[in-house]
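Protocol step 4 of 6: structure prediction from sequence.
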Amino acid sequence: MAKRSTPKKQQANSQSSRRYKAYQNKARKRLVDMTALSKCDQCSEMKLAHAACATCGTYKGRTVIDQSKAMDKITKIQA
């Protein structure tokens, strides 16, 4: 097992938090670029790109998710 050197002085809290905040900001910028939103052609709501719209259930101009069936399932579970 390799021996590690011990720190000679205690690191200040501000320095630790500054380094951690820089890491957080880089990660936040990277995640913002990853989520691509686009407008739905049918209802003009914002949706994830390359995914079916959660509001109207359409993808590339055709209905993929039948919203009436989804509503029936919810009412059956609640009742």
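Step 5 (inspection) to follow. The mean pLDDT is 83.
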